[in-house]
Amino acid sequence: MSTLTIYPENQPDHGKTLNDYADIKAELATIDVEFEHWNAHTLLSADADQQSVLDAYQKSIDKLNLRFSFKSVDVINVTPDHPDKTALRQKFLAEHVHDDFEVRFFIEGKGLFYLHANNNIYTVLCEAGDLISVPNNTPHWFDMGENPHFKVIRFFTVAEGWVAEFTGSDIAKNFPTFDQYVAEQA
């Protein structure tokens, strides 16, 4: 189940958690984050390559491209046996911003976005079917957990794809990791 917890940026032990989709969507809208639930029921083989995934979701991709004119679209697929899972996790765990806005459509698994806005940390557990957009220049980070399992279509307004500017803040160390957060929500 998708979940949102809002923590004061200096009180990582005092979060307010929302589980209702409409409440999550409304709360995220206050910080200009779009949160939608799309159909992610297309059956794909476990070893489906990037082009197979993009072909399977072409109608959804076209729908977003009509709205935003993306310059680049790719797929990131990370599983517990991915050879670079630790390095990828570390890269995404550091707070960063992008010049373009970030759009992600989860088609399998789950991951945890942390959005730093309005003196709060908005922690969004995204699962299959969730589409989230993070406004440009919004400080954030992402945790996939120690044994990640997710497949996400990523959309970019710049041809280079994922380009981050790291803030240098260590705030991410103060908040629950993906694994801690999921255990707390169980």
CATH topology annotation: Jelly Rolls
Derived structural class = alpha+beta
| Sheet of most strands | 9 strands, antiparallel
Total separate domains = 1
Helix fraction?
A: 10-25%
In the CATH hierarchy, what is the architecture at level 2?
Sandwich
Provide the CATH superfamily. Jelly Rolls
Q: How much strand content do the residues show?
A: 25-35%
**Poorly predicted segments:** none
CA-atom Rg in angstroms: 16 Å
Mean pLDDT: 92
Q: Termini, distance in Å?
A: 10 Å
CATH class: Mainly Beta
- Based on DSSP secondary structure assignment, what is the total number of beta strands? 11
Give the SSE order as H and E letters.
EEHEHHEHEEEEEEEH
Number of helices: 5
* Principal-axes shape call: globular
Structure description:
With 186 residues, the chain is of the alpha+beta class. The protein has one domain: Jelly Rolls, CATH 2.60.120.10. It is built from 5 helices and 11 strands. The protein has helices spanning 21-29, 50-56, 58-68, 85-93, 178-185, and strands at 3-8, 16-18, 34-37, 72-78, 96-97, 102-117, 120-127, 130-134, 140-143, 150-156, 165-166. The strands form 2 sheets. Strands 1, 2, 3, 4, 6, 7, 8, 9 and 10 form a 9-stranded antiparallel sheet that branches. It has a two-stranded antiparallel sheet with strand order 5-11. It is globular and about 45 Å long. It starts with a strand and ends with a helix. The model has no long low-confidence stretch (mean pLDDT 92).
Question: What brief labels describe this structure?
Answer:
5 helices, 186 residues, 9-stranded antiparallel sheet, Jelly Rolls, alpha+beta, two-stranded antiparallel ribbon
